[in-house]
Amino acid sequence: MIEVDRLTVTYGSTTVVKDASFSCRPGTVTGFLGPNGAGKSTTMRVLCGLTRATSGTATVNGMRYGQLRNPAREIGVLLDPTTQHSGRTGRENLTVSARMMGVTKERVEDMLELVGLGGAPAARRVGEYSLGMRQRLGLAHALLGEPNILVLDEPVNGLDPEGIHWMRGLLREFADGGGIVLLSSHLLREVDAVADSLVLIQRGEIIAKGNKTDLLTATGTVVRAVDQAQLSAVLSAAGIPATRTEDHAFIADAQAETVGRAAAEAGVVLLELRSADSGGLEEMFLAMTRDTSNDDTSNDDATNDAVREPQS
Ligand SMILES: Nc1ncnc2c1ncn2[C@@H]1O[C@H](COP(=O)(O)OP(=O)(O)OP(=O)(O)O)[C@@H](O)[C@H]1O
């Protein structure tokens, strides 16, 4: 199991992960989604013992990373493929790690073959590798100790479409065999094809989590008013979480009747009121990406403050 429990990470006066909790179970691929700077890497770094938690915990099979006797045998990590030793060949990089883990040379060769770096590429210096090849080597490294958990930070960056397809298949197979995969991305469609579960993080806060199918089919209500600022204030006052969509409607986390009544009681004239259907999560994700990328320029309303984790 991976368990992140009320994790908070603060750098100086800036809190980059705030009271985050989620877990990943055997047999699942969890997509860890959020825009740039949301706190994905920081959360993963705590899980892998590279960053200290200010409060809360992140554990692997019930223990902090530092408490694991031979961590690479329990958790395979790919955080930054550019940190591999560029003066060594791919094979040498894996061989050095294999010695430290107590893994055989055969396993090194098997992993090189598995990730498509067998033969000539294995004998090339990593400094000559493309980013895609480094990602493949990073995955081989993560798998070397035969762990049952993989933590991968944006692993498809630099892979071509065939490589992305290949990696998805490999991760799916790993999870289907009882493994746990935590996979970060800033693109919903990148993890949509392989994940069973999703955890959405924005500005360090987990704003949605759960089974992917449930999240994608979560209803919610699309609502649009003549006066959107007035509607935003009404939703906020009624305690209804809402996110503004790309086309300037709101997705409210409540039934249409509840939203309609709140608007009617406040005398807000509605132009649209309907179930969000499966577009809800996609819209929410687009909105949170836009909100974050506009951080420096936008203070147009308090909509984002109303975003909450959906009730399950
Ligand atoms: N060592 C550090 N000192 C200060 N701030 C940091 C440090 N590491 C990360 N941050 C800040 O923490 C925030 C979260 O960063 P993090 O790398 O976890 O985000 P992310 O979701 O992984 O985004 P990206 O995909 O861009 O890496 C960012 O604002 C980042 O600038």
From TrEMBL:
Keywords: ATP-binding, Nucleotide-binding, Transport. Residues 2-228 form the ABC transporter domain. The keyword ATP-binding applies. Residues 289-312 are annotated as: Disordered. SUPFAM superfamilies: P-loop containing nucleoside triphosphate hydrolases. One of its GO terms (molecular function) is ATP binding. Belongs to the ABC transporter superfamily. This is ATP-binding cassette domain-containing protein. It comes from Streptomyces boncukensis.
